[in-house]
Amino acid sequence: MSDFPVRMPDYSGLLNEIGTAMQRKDNPAGYMYERIAAMLQSHQDLLSDNEELGVYVVGGSAPAFHLRSITYSNPDILRFIGKDADGNAVQLLQHYSQMGIMVVSMPKLEEKVYRIGFNPAKG
Fold first, then answer.
1. Residue 23: strand, helix, or coil
2. Which of 2, 30, 107, 110 has the fewest C-beta atoms under 10 angstroms from its C-beta?
3. Which residues contact 101 (CB under 8 A, 6 or more apart)?
């Protein structure tokens, strides 16, 4: 035996990164949800007390709608849930690779302004 201690490199950070990359590869909708939620939260933080977060589908003919929540179904579907200008429930089902939405500021739909509580850990 040697009198010199053998120092092993710490690979825990690298292993965590590999695990995260593998999870993202296998569950791209969840990863896209995390990214979109962060961007939407940033936009929502800029809204006035009379505005709500809205979404418009780029390339479509449907008008923008008031966003109420986002969910996802791995591996590939994101679901945007909201209300149209008349208060009717609407849902947009979108493949994660075909995201073409424009985030807009919309006048509040009801007396009390609606804010989405984003929690990227949940879908």
1. helix
2. 2
3. 55, 56, 57, 58, 80, 92, 94
